[in-house]
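Quick one: structure tokens for this chain, please?
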Amino acid sequence: MLSISQSPSFFLLILLSLSLIIGANLAQAINNPSLIPPSAENKFEIVQNNPSNNNYAIAQELYLENCATCHIPIPPEVLPTETWKNLLEKPQVHYGESLPKMLRLSQNVIWNYLKTFSRSVQKDEIIPYTINESRYFKALHPKVDLPKPVTHRSCILCHTGID
């Protein structure tokens, strides 16, 4: 005589129940992508492809309006969060330039964008002040003969057509 745990119909009932639960959760996640927590790999994709996420799209636009008028827009992940924080806290000392006065609200919106999409500092990593000191920058430019000194205008020598 078969016990309840050895019965094929019991096994099929459990399998059907699990399939329904997984299917219902998957359908809910597909219909509401905001339920899926962002990972490091898909954060930027969420901003670009999720029209319901206007906060980051507006923040990115504000970042570009304020920062890409003098130099190419540096992707937030190039510099660690701490560097971005220092730059936003002291706009009057921006690599030897004094930036135009920015509304505190704009500064906070840009900070939330940069904080979300920048990277953290690795253990024992010195917080870079300039882009060329960034480990991310060095990893992307391992054998590039860079001009001396590297400045915010150096990028356009190789990266032509960047707005």
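The helical segments are 8-31, 43-49, 54-67, 81-89, 104-117, 135-140, 155-158.
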